């Protein structure tokens, strides 16, 4: 049995004690508090999150904020950061009111926040994430980013994507980026939750340095011993109410926990019989993958076995390898039966239950109710023949909630509304509905409070007592020492030591700090992987362009060889003119896809444009143009604004919203022009045909516009913001880039692209028709997907979208010359789209794989430079 240290008598401080922190020799230019929250209250439906909270932080002070999960800490931090607006009360930053200015104003007043789940955009590079943070508040980007990161002892490859870094490395980057702004106030939300002891120690030094330079630091953490080392003051929050504020070292861990939970709590690890079953329940032999191995280990039933090591040494990769993820070689056996084709489903069927440490991304389904999240892995117990009987689901929920103290307003409440600790309890409570043979848990208590830790420890101990083999990876060495019977220590992807309990936290840390018996992977291989990752990172955005150019060239050469008409000037000019409507609407669609949205109504907008042109543009006289152009532009603005209103403030699903808009636009077009009619200026077609040689002038304009947009996308602040919002709107919002505004702009520009395409179409048809644009909706999406776009946003290029449109137009032009029937042409469309997208996905996976290797190498360099 292991207990937390510093037990003492109960503090008789149930009322708030406001004290002046001891700053020593630290100085600041400010004479008053840097951050002041006064009488702050906040309620959500059915929940009173904060009640009349007063909180302040002085310059040159670390003021810790502690409390249970769900106590209101995150709400208070979000109000201070401008993410949430309080129902009542005020927020002052350096004496200036935050009012309703939001995140952007808070950052401009000098407040920076480092979030536990980070505000980084994983798909962007390290350099782009830093630049995005400075761009969002209108600050000049640092001139030498490499020097900036080196100052924080973080030698990441600036061109590496953030997703290639491990959780600990991402957290350090999050904190370093916030500190690089030299903030007056710094909010740190669980900054060491994902860090091992060495990296946590390094981060503590960064915090001390910032404090000594005069920064006011609000420090949120569940690691109370860490708080003891850092904090000048500590404030306890329970159920949205301040329970007390205490000086540094004027408190004991047990006493603070009692204030947090409202009752005495034994901070002890559960006692167990320590009588493991004979023979291994889980047996692993020579298991290997890209980031670990070969690894051999055994876990017997009734045992809790730990996995320890410095961040980035293969622990998480090993746990995923046990369920067949990124596994190349080795044998996995459960109760002596070898898994012949290991994959997550087969592993679950064999009795291996894996719970990921990345709770938000891999363990919970945010929009689903808590009851469904609890029972999602226990299909057979939910009902016969694949049915889910409500009485069984509610029974399972009631038992789990009572047994593990899960706090939720209702079993039908979305799990995303619960605190992190309650989410983690639900994840681990799944195992009690199945009684697995092997339970594999990654970071079981990351980001949860003391009482939730005790509940989780009891869950794991009860599972072991029931005969389950439990394997736990944790960055908290004291947790491993108190909980585990044995501990495997990993270094550079392999097991460097096995510690048989009882062991101590110091012994575990010493074992992986001094691990040197494992041969290092060759520098040349690491350097080669890093070079390959950088090369793929530079090439990947251009793969769709290269593929489309190659396909277009092959099709053109083949068609020209079989038809003498193809290479003639009139045919090429006709090809370019026919490609214009699709190209312009593809440009607009690409813009909104990059922002993470899309617009199904573009075809109807093109039809409406043709109808309006047929009614207002009988010729190209100034009088006609003065009526037609403003009217058509107004129509584009109204269509885009309607989509933006529905999808943004009203939060209507984009598919539903744009289909509804499509119906409205199509209905207006039919009312205005029930039958084809209305002559469109004949000179419009003639004007479109004029150009240089056989190249039409509008096509030249298209090329220039496309190149300009491409340069804008990758060389400007606006382009970076557009991609960032598409990749991760929450992270963009957190740095002050309002994703709703960016996506609204994307929808309006998409409508303008459809109108431009409609004008091009009007020049070709010469007459008003209410459904002439309907045939462009699906080809428009095909063009942008060929150009590398994805529905999830952030990816693609304007050059790729236009090349996709030209390629599809080339197919339309070539198939009649080659006597290919329409049915075969449609099949060709689909086959080419599948082949192209598959090629892009393959290159992206290669890039991500090489990037992970490069990122782990960077993290190892970081660890070597960190002095504990």
Strand line-up in the sheet with most strands:
6-7-8-3-9-10
Dominant shape: globular
State the major sheet.
6 strands, mixed
N- and C-termini, Cα separation:
28 Å
What CATH first level of the largest domain would be assigned?
Mainly Alpha
Helix proportion: 40-55%
CATH architecture of the largest domain: Orthogonal Bundle
Map the helices and strands.
Elements (H helix, E strand, L loop, with lengths): L34 E10 L2 E11 L4 E6 L5 H9 L6 E6 L2 E2 L4 H7 L2 E4 L11 H11 L8 H7 L15 H13 L5 E5 L7 H16 L3 E5 L3 H7 L2 E6 L2 E7 L5 H9 L18 E10 L2 E9 L3 E5 L6 H7 L7 E6 L2 E2 L5 H7 L1 E4 L3 H5 L6 H6 L3 H4 L7 H15 L15 H10 L8 E5 L7 H16 L3 E5 L3 H7 L2 E6 L2 E7 L4 H9 L9 H17 L3 H20 L6 H26 L7 H15 L5 H26 L6 H19 L4 E3 L2 H8 L1 E2 L2 E2 H19 L1 H11 L1 H6 L4 H27 L1 E2 L8 H10 L11 H20 L4 H44 L3
Report on the architecture of this protein.
- With 868 residues, the chain is α/β, with parallel strands linked by helices.
- It folds into 3 domains: 35-261, 3-Layer(aba) Sandwich (Rossmann fold), CATH 3.40.50; 280-517, Rossmann fold, CATH 3.40.50; 535-849, ABC transporter involved in vitamin B12 uptake, BtuC (Orthogonal Bundle).
- The chain is built from 32 helices and 24 strands.
- The strands form 6 sheets. The chain has a 6-stranded mixed beta sheet with strand order 6-7-8-3-9-10, with helices on both faces. A 6-stranded mixed beta sheet has the order 16-17-18-13-19-20, sandwiched between helices. The protein has a 4-stranded antiparallel beta sheet with strand order 2-1-4-5, with helices on one face.
- Strand 7, helix 6 and strand 8 form a beta-alpha-beta unit.
- The model is unreliable at 1-30, 516-529 and 858-868 (pLDDT under 50).
